[in-house]
Amino acid sequence: MFQVNNLTYRYPRNPENTLKGVSFDIKQGEIFGLLGPSGVGKSTTQKIMVKLLTAYQGEIYYRNKELREFDREYYQEIGVGFEVPVHFSKLTAEENINFFKKLYRNQAHTDAMMQRLGIYEDRKKKVDEFSKGMKVRLNFVRAVLNRPAVLFLDEPTIGLDPANARIIKTMIKEFRKYGGTVLLSTHLMNDVDELCDRVAFMADGQIAEIDTPKNLKIKHGEKKLEVEYAEGETTKNASFDLETLSRNENFFNLVRTRQVISMHSQETTLDDIFIKITGVEKHG
Amino acid sequence: MANFFIILFGELQRMKRYNIVTASTVVALLWIGVLYLTEIPDITFIFPLLIYIDVTSMAILMVGVTIFYEKQEGSLHTMLVTPISKQDYLLSKSTVTVLSSVITLVILYLYAMIFKEIDLNFAGLLGAVILVALFHSLVGFLLTYSSRDFTALLINMMKYMFVLMLPVLLEYIRIIDHQLVENILYIAPTKAAMILLYASTGDAELWEIIYGLSYLVIGSAVLFVLALRKFEQFAVRESGV
Ligand SMILES: Nc1ncnc2c1ncn2[C@@H]1O[C@H](COP(=O)(O)OP(=O)(O)OP(=O)(O)O)[C@@H](O)[C@H]1O
Ligand SMILES: [Mg+2]
Predict the structure, then answer these.
(1) Which of A142, A280, A283, B186 has the fewest CB atoms lying closer than 10 Å?
(2) Is residue A283 part of a domain?
(3) A19 and A100 co-located in one domain
(4) Interface of A with B in 53-72 (CB under 8 A)
């Protein structure tokens, strides 16, 4: 769907390049996660891909055609979900949605979506009377109201309660089920784990690593068994590699001779991998 | 073109909701107050002056206010990723601005006809108002692009008024009465505007009307192209949150 080759970008007022040769591709029908520490250039990459920033170097192909060759028609095919509020604040939610909907050839059933997201009852309220979470939900409706082929999402569940976050995640998965492609940028590793088919980690203006969450865990993770046992009055911990557990005499000795208090298998999380690859504690 | 009318309609709807219609009605009432307080019964020669002040300043202000509001609430962001073209965006704002100036003109003219004496060519004045409002809405875009915030826009607008608007006004009320200065003022778009507005009273040579028309028509075309070009730059700046 997208091929991004050696993308370089410098903001006019910055002395240094923000993007220093970013390359990746996104396949049709996948949810692609773009991850990395705050300020690394995720939003910048997204802004270039939605043609907000045009003075980039390198190439971006969408359906095998360079992005620069597309005119405003491009926007018929994509949906953009912003992290920040983006509506006419003194118009109602419904008026906002209706205004934007009219600009597109394909129109989604926004009433049903608003109902599902629990904002239909409030559709006649002005957007500046909406709560933060309501605005986030409205942003999502705004992003998909033209039934796009590609969805760009920047922190789509930030500030939402777990129930509403779940609904949005389900809707994103449904979008993929019907062939939609998603570029997702978020700091919530649980969302990434649940949603993304592949993820790219950015570090220092470049892509540090791309793979499926599962492969990343295999590659960077050691599966371990943590054992807590009693020794006299005190408790102690021991840790064993899961893969070689069946051959590990120390482990068998321990379970035979000591009183085991608890046993947990420990998986490397995407959080751990994030820190390992980008070399930074994540923010936000 | 279909989009243009959708955007135009949206723009009109917001004019109402954001109380811009109310604000410009208040300004029109203010002008009516001025006319009311004028002792002279025949206001033919004051009328174009009021219209001149109203149209030039309100056109700049209206474009600036709406853009800064869109910027602040983030709706500008969204519009930048829709099929709305920058041509349609600029033209719809200009159209609404022109419309608002025309409404003010009609209100004031009706008042003048009913309560005062006035004798001018309304069609000519209407045409002049449309052209002057269009030109100044485009000035509004360029001033807005080069202003960091709304205060900066107000300052830029003051500069425009002091350098270009006020001297022409002073010339027409004969406070500036110096041939050289009057000649120099021909380079100001505001002089072209004033000539066209005054032409409706019959007080303009043919060559002056031709000069005024060509200045504002060609000027508007040039400003439109500039406003389109610089829009990109402006949008890039605005998209960096
Ligand atoms: N309009 C702008 N002008 C100049 N520099 C900018 C602009 N927007 C962003 N930057 C810089 O570019 C870098 C990347 O910013 P970007 O917003 O892409 O980061 P991000 O990865 O999305 O971070 P976050 O996770 O916090 O959203 C930052 O150093 C930022 O300061
Ligand atoms: Mg960001």
Answers:
(1) A283
(2) no
(3) yes
(4) 53-55, 72
CA-nearest residue for atom 9, ligand 1, is B240
Into how many domains does chain B fold? 1
Helix (H) or strand (E) holding A226: strand A224-231
Residue A77 sits in the same domain as residue A188: yes
Alpha-helical segments (H) within chain B: 2-17, 20-37, 47-73, 75-80, 86-115, 122-145, 150-160, 166-172, 179-184, 189-199, 206-239
| Residue-range definition of the domain harbouring residue B29 | 2-239
Beta-carbon separation of A103 and B78 below 8 A: no
Please tell me whether residue B117 adopts helix, strand or coil conformation.
Answer: strand
- Out of B18, B81, B239, the one facing A75 most closely (by C-beta) is B81
Q: What angle do CA A14, A16, A21 make, to 5 degrees?
A: 125
- Would you give the end-to-end CA distance of chain B in angstroms? 31
Whether residue A253 is contained in a domain is answered as yes
How remote is the CA of residue A181 from the centroid of ligand 2, in Å?
Answer: 20
Interface probe with A: pick from B75, B92, B148, most Cβ of A within 10 Å: B75
Q: Which domain holds residue A90?
A: 2-217
Same domain membership, residue A67 and residue A11: yes
The answer to whether residues A164 and A234 belong to one domain is no
Q: Are B161 and B139 in contact (CB under 8 A)?
A: no
Using an 8 Å CB-CB cutoff, list chain A residues near B240.
11
Structural domain contains residue A260: yes
A146 and A10 belong to one structural domain:
yes
Divide the 241 residues of chain B into consecutive groups of 10 and give the mean pLDDT of each group. Answer: 87 90 90 88 89 94 93 90 93 95 93 89 95 97 92 94 90 83 87 93 88 95 95 76 41
The alpha carbons of chain B give a radius of gyration, in whole angstroms, of: 18
Is there a single domain that holds both residue A112 and residue A228? no
| Number of domains chain A is built from | 2
Tell me if ipTM is over 0.85. Answer: yes
Asked if A89 and B236 come within 8 Å (Cβ–Cβ), the reply is no
- What are the pLDDT digits (tens) for A38-85? 989 999 999 999 998 888 999 999 999 999 999 999 999 999 998 888
Rounded to a whole number of angstroms, the distance from the CA of A207 to the nearest CA of chain B is: 21
Is A278 part of a structural domain of the chain? no
Q: Sheet of A234-241: strands edge to edge?
A: A234-241, A224-231, A259-266
